[in-house]
Design a protein that fits this description.
Oligomer: heterotrimer
CATH architecture of the largest domain in chain A: 3-Layer(aba) Sandwich
Number of strands of chain B: 5
Low-confidence stretches of chain A: none
Radius of gyration of chain B: 17 Å
Helix content of chain A: 40-55%
Distance between the termini of chain B: 36 Å
Mean pLDDT of chain B: 94
Radius of gyration of chain A: 21 Å
CATH topology of one domain in chain B: Alpha-Beta Plaits
CATH class of the largest domain in chain A: Alpha Beta
Number of domains of chain A: 2
CATH topology of the largest domain in chain A: Rossmann fold
Distance between the termini of chain A: 50 Å
Structural class of chain B: alpha+beta
CATH architecture of one domain in chain B: 2-Layer Sandwich
Strand content of chain B: 15-25%
Number of strands of chain A: 16
Chains: A alpha/beta (383), B alpha+beta (97), C alpha/beta (291)
Strand content of chain A: 15-25%
Number of helices of chain B: 2
CATH superfamily of the largest domain in chain A: Thiamin diphosphate (ThDP)-binding fold, Pyr/PP domains
Helix content of chain B: 10-25%
């Protein structure tokens, strides 16, 4: 059924179709509509789920950890400050190997207060063990929630579905909401081998000395390495069943491009538009959208960028004292594999718009330079 | 959970569960070695009130019917049983050397 | 004669509690009242370590270790899951120390109490952060030495009244307990098991190293705390207070204090101060008791 809905509601529908069983969430702009619609859906008994109206995001993740440990499919949604508050428990959920899926609306961190789009919040969590999917359309958001549960429950690691504040969360797009029956055929019920079970009692998370802690960390890393081919497999299977395939990366006119713009989230849509415009002028530009940041798709990145003569990364985030985070990760993946120069641009922080002109400006700034004149370029900063 | 005195060994990564979970009881850990004092019940005076059994923080006193039997493999020698015994028929004796 | 409590143990010996640990008695008694169909969650607390390291455990029921602040929230999550999965008969117990209840865990506790989540919240109270080496908490009583309230700066603030805080949430059932009165605690838990909604049990659990007391005095101290009125035993059912162990003529507080090295430095004047505070709070509470 096709409906024009906002990104947040695409999440609500995705969670409903995934038959989540416990939702624990705390309100924060710009996520509120996710849980508001879910509340209605649960109240209308269209979804059999418990909705715990927790008193903070920290408790939201704690409740999800409890629920998932007991064998229920758990879901939550948050953004910026809320995600930061959950940080301790993101480590916990991953270490406990719980297949929790969370919607994360990229919103700038305070102070100063900002409700607009920025990736620092989610990227600050990239070391926790959570898979990260950066979405660029409401359709992808809905589809990825469903795929995420399948992947998470196989590898036993949690995942966050990341979307831009307002430019996706509150933007209305046409979305095909699949039939429940079809989703049920794709996504089986959650069956947790290691759940809390009174008929087979165990203690989870007990003190572990140095002689075994490292092995548990190794297993977590191994699980994410196993997730990578699984993400591609499931993206393809989803495509076969629902007509929309997904992968770790989303390349657009990259094959014969001299210059490749590397972007994520909604900036990719703008990049795509700009690529087409510049192509009509004869410029050989392409766009590589990074969809999956964790687990990091080393092989896919290296393959897609193998022939690029110039790589321009647009980061809607900044690691203070270093430079953009996607740029860091791309650069280190290419080291020893591809010697094309990587330009790092910081744009769109705090929700500042990234227009096609912005991107054209970025490319102009790179100019004919064979390599970057500086480690970090700030876009349109008033000096 | 399996109760055994043997400590668990993992021979390879495959034997380790995905997350830290218990696989055996702490009954594999005989805490009797912690003792400095050892309780001894004078059964001729014991009225089998089971108060000593009731209070033991370590479940180291078992009941044989109504008769309390101290499990010296686990008794830490805290002395609560001796202190609470209404007949004062539990002596705390110096352990070992 | 019948044993005073059910014989079956749900806790094995061999755990790592100190000799004479009040928390050990509290857990053992509580487990007997709950039985097999129970799931526990622990935050960081003494029992995190007492239960034993991976790959062992001394509990015979499922246990989920969680982060310090999260006891009530994690327990609420477990319960919600069990209900959705059709296993409503399983009881969920959040089992926390005083630090994880009075201080860092109080937000989650308040949230769960206000939502009337159908869980049991047990606070075993040894009156300081004992697991990390005896630092003061909001539960440390006036006058006590701890490593962060050394003798020259002993704790001047009174013990936070967690029972009044929980009562303000109008929960269906709450009670206090003492490890010296296991039958009283057992009865309260059995009653609570028949009640739906948020249930809070606050148990005084003496700590020999933290209180600087003899290990064999733990039960005696837990009894004196009740008999002096320092820790009255009562239950509150839908707002109705009932004292379950009556103390018509309270013993002087000095009898309780003199057995604990953590109060050794108190002057007579300061001990009178303690007595006055105990009297004042007890009298306030007494007015609420109905018979």
């Amino acid at each position: 059924m096709k409906k024009v809905i906002m990104g947040n509601h695409a999440l609500s529908h995705g969670a409903t179709l995934a038959r989540v069983q416990v939702i624990a969430a705390y309100p924060i702009t710009p996520q509120t509509q996710v849980v508001e619609l879910l509340s209605e859906i649960v109240a209308d008994q269209k979804l059999k789920a418990a909705f715990i109206k927790v008193e903070s995001e920290h408790s939201a993740m704690a409740a999800c950890i409890g629920a998932s440990s007991a064998g229920a499919r758990a879901f939550t949604a948050t953004s910026s400050q809320g995600l930061a508050l959950m940080h301790e428990l993101l480590h916990w959920a991953a270490g406990a190997r719980l297949p929790i899926v969370m919607a994360e609306v990229n919103r700038a961190m305070a102070p100063p207060w900002s409700i607009w789009s920025d990736q620092n919040d989610s990227l600050s969590q990239r070391d926790t063990g959570w898979m990260q999917f950066y979405c660029q359309s409401n359709q992808e958001v809905l589809d990825t929630v469903i795929q995420a549960y399948k992947i998470c429950e196989k590898v036993l690691m949690p995942a966050m579905i990341v979307l831009d504040a307002f430019s996706l969360s509150h933007t209305y797009e046409a979305v095909d909401i699949p039939d429940q029956e079809l989703v049920d055929r794709y996504l089986p019920p959650f069956s947790f081998k290691y759940k809390l079970d009174v008929n087979d009692p165990h203690t989870f998370g007990g003190l572990t000395k140095p002689d075994w802690y490292m092995e548990f960390r190794y297993k977590m890393h191994e699980a994410l390495e196993q997730a990578l081919p699984l993400i591609k497999e499931e993206g393809k299977r989803f495509g076969d069943m629902f007509g929309r395939a997904y992968d770790t990366l989303d390349p657009y006119r990259v094959d014969d491009a001299d210059t490749v713009l590397v972007t994520s989230g909604t900036a990719a849509s703008t990049a795509r538009y700009t690529v087409d415009k510049l192509r009509r002028k004869g410029k050989k530009v392409g766009n590589l959208r990074v969809r999956v940041l964790r687990p990091f798709p080393f092989a896919d990145i290296r393959r897609e960028l193998a022939n690029a003569k110039k790589i321009v990364v647009i980061d809607r985030n900044i690691s203070f004292g270093y430079h953009g985070i996607f740029a860091q990760e791309v650069k280190s993946a290419l080291y020893g594999h591809c010697s094309a120069p990587v330009f790092c641009f910081i744009a769109g922080l705090g929700g500042r718009d990234i227009f096609p002109e912005t991107i054209e400006g970025i490319l102009a700034e790179c100019g004919r330079a064979k390599k970057p004149k500086q480690d970090i370029y700030w876009v349109e900063v008033k000096k | 959970m399996p109760k055994s005195r043997k400590k668990i060994q993992f021979n390879n990564l495959g034997e380790l569960p995905p997350m830290a979970m218990s696989l055996r009881s702490m009954a594999a850990n005989p805490t009797g070695s912690w003792r400095n004092l050892r309780p001894e019940i004078r059964y001729e005076d014991c009225i089998q009130c089971m108060i000593c059994w009731k209070y033991c923080p370590d479940a180291a006193i078992e009941l044989d019917g109504e008769k309390p039997v101290i499990n010296l493999d686990f008794c830490k020698g805290c002395g609560i049983c001796a202190e609470e015994c209404p007949k004062k028929c539990i002596a705390m004796l110096k352990e070992g050397k | 004669m019948k044993p005073p409590l059910p014989v079956e143990e749900y806790m094995s010996p061999g755990h790592l509690a100190c000799q004479g640990c009040g928390a050990g008695i509290a857990m053992r008694t509580t487990l007997k009242a709950f039985g097999k169909d129970t799931i526990f969650t622990f935050p960081a607390c003494c029992w995190t370590v007492i239960d034993g390291p991976f790959p062992y455990s001394s509990l015979e029921v499922p246990l989920l270790h969680t982060a310090f602040e999260t006891t009530a929230a994690a327990a609420a999550g477990v319960k919600a899951a069990l209900d959705i999965l059709g296993q409503e008969q399983i009881k969920v117990v959040g089992w926390a120390g005083d630090g994880g209840t009075f201080d860092i865990g109080i937000q989650a506790l308040s949230g769960a109490a206000e939502r009337n989540d159908d869980i049991f919240y047990f606070c075993y109270d040894n009156e300081a952060y004992m697991n990390t080496g005896i630092q003061r908490s909001g539960a440390t009583p006036y006058g006590a030495w701890t490593t962060t309230t050394p003798v020259k700066h002993f704790k001047k603030e009174v013990k936070k009244s967690i029972d009044d805080i929980v009562a303000a949430h109008r929960v269906p059932y709450q009670a206090t307990g003492s490890v010296a009165y296991p039958e009283d605690l057992f009865k309260k838990i059995v009653k609570a098991k028949g009640i739906s909604g948020f249930k809070f049990l606050h148990i005084l659990a003496p700590c020999p190293p933290g209180w600087k007391a003899r290990p064999d005095d733990s039960v005696k101290l837990a009894r004196l705390a009740v008999q002096t009125g320092v820790f009255p035993l009562y239950e509150v059912e839908n707002g109705v207070y009932r004292q379950t162990i009556k103390t018509p003529s309270r013993k002087p507080v000095l009898e309780y204090i003199k057995l604990q090295g953590r109060f050794k430095h108190l002057t007579n004047e300061e001990i009178n101060e303690v007595q006055a505070r105990v009297d004042s709070y007890y009298q306030l509470l007494e007015k609420r008791f109905q018979d």
